[in-house]
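Re-run with default settings, no changes from the original entry. Doing this only to confirm the output is reproducible before filing.
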Amino acid sequence: SAPLHLAAREPQNVSARRTLEHLSRLPLRVRRSLLLVGFHIGRRFGYLAASPAEALRISVALHIPLKNALKIAGEAMFHDLMFAVEWLALKNRTPAGLFRDARAVRITDHEIVQWASEQKAVILATLHMASYATSLAKLLYAHFPGRQVVIVRSKSITEDERQALAKLAMIGVQAEYLFLDRPETFLDLVRLVKRGAVLVTLVDLPHEY
């Protein structure tokens, strides 16, 4: 969506990018609270406005009034910004800061997670929604230490994402992206999982990602 692309993947808006970079260096609870306050101020004074085209698309798709669709589009904008901040935090926070952030994350279903961590072949299939970056990092660090982690993608990654993976390596999470751009790549993926790699796939991502 537009806010994420502007702020994180395609930093055309230098001011917005700089603001998110600063926020990402703060502790998890602090950065999320400040982002929420800043977002509401921006909406109140017109600095941040949901795209009318996006709202119209939501209105048509969900068969709801445009007023309600505008509210949903605004909420989506906020969560896109928070998503961007959390990925930037993986890059910008110190290892000690990442460990402190992880303490604010609660993992449920411990029995299921523990069972999965004991299996040789593990596939973590999740939805591409919410600000999952810090939570995923904690899950991998706490329950899959020392395991190779493969994240499936269809296109190349950004420099921010490369730096985030490098920071994860500093805390013991050996993660890498595997690009499914060739048929033979699927065979490589199967071999990695059979050898004990943890596969992370976001099942609802469109093919362009």
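The CA atoms of residues 15 and 88 lie 15 Å apart. The beta strands are 122-126, 148-153, 174-179, 198-202.
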